[in-house]
Task: structure prediction
Amino acid sequence: MQKRIGLMWVVALLFQLTCRADEGMWIPLLLKKYNLEEMQRQGFRLTAEDVYDINRAALKDAVVGLGREGRPFSHFCTGELVSREGLLLTNHHCAYSLIQAHSTLTDNYLKDGFWAYNRPDELANPGITASILVRIEDVTQQINGALTTGTNEKERAAIVEKLSRKLEEEAVRGTDLQANVKPYFNGNQYFMSVFRIYRDVRLVGAPPSAIGKFGGDTDNWTWPRHTGDFAFLRIYAGKENAPAAYSPENVPYRPATHFKIATGGVREGDFTFVFGYPASTREYLPSFAAEQLLEIENPHKTAIRTAKLKLIDQAMNSDELLRLKYAAKAAGVANSWKKWQGETKGLTRFGTVEQKRRLEAEFKTWAVGRVPYDGVTDRYEALYRERKELILADAYALEAGLGGAEIIAFARSLTDRLSEMTENDLLPASVDQQIRSFFKNYDAATDQKILSEMLKLYDRQLPNEWKPEAVKESGQKGGYDAYAAHLFHQSFFTDSTRLLACLERWKGVPLQEKLKKDPAYLLASSIADFRTLRISPPLREIENQLRELDRVWLAGLMEMQPDKRFYADANSTLRVAYGKIGGYSPADGIYYRPFTTLSGILEKEDPEIYDYRVPAKLKELYQRKDFGPYMQDGEVPVCFIAGNHTTGGNSGSPVLNAEGHLIGVNFDRAWEGVMSDVQYEPSICRNISVDIRYVLFIVDKFAEAGHLIREMELVE
Ligand code: ARG
Ligand code: ASP
Result:
């Protein structure tokens, strides 16, 4: 009997281990210590040094964080080097706004795709950066050592900030590198990432949206999926392979290493890993925060965006030019809108708040008499109680107000920028640029409707004390529509010709007076000032205290559960996640297989629905069965899912097999498990990747861009 219980216990433990195994996004520097053994047990065939090394080339040298000049460390996506000549593979949706920027109604690359068949045809994308990690250093000692207990949270932040900048500066002095220190584990640890950041990144190839965005926002965040979500960029370097601003003289970057492409296929149960830049997760949130996410933030923000999207969709469906202008904006708005809903569903289904409450109850008992952990959960509860109203008011100020109709943020930022100008100044080129790029993708008629809708929601959903004056007044006279119509008629900011003429005619003080009386600016200021004066100060105060609690809470959890292996929340630094290829059950009685194929694209085809149109050439290839060598079991594979713990920013990440060869490009997560930013559930959390053989098939057969395939290194 005892033996049986023992055995059962071992089985249960093993089950738990294997079940939990896919959770986590790990720091490459610490792979050996925490993960290697488990990875190898699951089938991984490389060493920790093959993944991350600072003395010789390692896989990390082929992983690229995509960012923007000015904030290169907040990577919006990941990419991977796949040739000796800087060829970079990422997602179509990551390159979406770049493709859009190069598109016109006559050369509509977003609609028809783009392929450079010669190097000089590759298109420059000013402002885009490509970061390659040189090394990571643990700087916890240096930072924590300088902090004395009793420093209050504000002082602490200032010290950390100052010290971080100093460490960064020292690390890169006299080099062409850039360093960035970031907090991990809620500020209990600090690591510095040192990068070489390239600034000349060109567009090489992208399929038409009917492939790269097949299924559109209807299929977004769902499985089964058939999206060919990939695009090719190329990094260019100046002299001696060093970073340089765009120049026709630049040459393709020569990476220390690049990924080999695996053509041998993937099977259910195969070990995979994802190497990339996840941006943000909140796995250690207390129950009170999860509750507010479910009850306040997600539902209200979703409702605001539902209203906005309805109007944007109407515009896009009415006119081809508006479709092009609003493409990237709409994708962005729709993406979070849908994700919040999936997150709410998943967290509710798995009783996350309850699970967290149980953990907090356990902690509370454990913490009695232990400084500084005693009382943490009670303080959490009190702070979140105070936060409740503020976070609702802030959600409206941001989503419906400052981030509602575009004219609001535009009027505000332009007026601020012009407030320094004197009579004699010429209009700065950057302001001129801002005006042009704003109007390039702007439709005043649509924005006017959005303004009216946003004000209506803002005014109706909040109690009076949380509404800026202008919002309260907006519906009073002739109603919201009339208010918006009047504002758009009167404002300088709603029409580029009128705006430029105004800037031409008035300069210096008279100009500022004019602009500051503009109704769009007045509305923007009313909202912004309300937020600055009424919402932000108490909210910041609470957040400061929460930051301290978060740190203490996680330190306590780690102490309370000494055998648990903790991972740090995503923070836009390089991480490794690993998991197996496997299906899941989305609901009782249904099981989803982990693979999709080209046949499935034809099954989904519907010429009546924009998202499900299939390009004629793709259909021909399918009918002729002209699949080349890109087949598995007689089909062209399209997408697959695995249990890798990923999040936003992981898009474009290389998905690798046990040998470290590229089997796919990560681009999404499956609906039922979108909650993984707050709680990872091994039974349903899946990352979605486009199969590398679909990428090769489209490049070779559809785009006839065989030169790109010849640049890559294909292995079985
Ligand atoms: N859901 C994916 C991610 O979060 C893809 C988004 C782009 N696609 C879209 N249809 N909006 O970024
Ligand atoms: N689609 C996301 C991205 O753009 C990835 C995810 O959230 O799973 O990074």
Summary: The two ends are 50 Å apart (CA to CA). The pocket of arginine (ligand 1) is lined by residues 93, 213, 216-217, 220-221, 331, 334-335, 648, 651, 667-668 (CB under 6 Å).
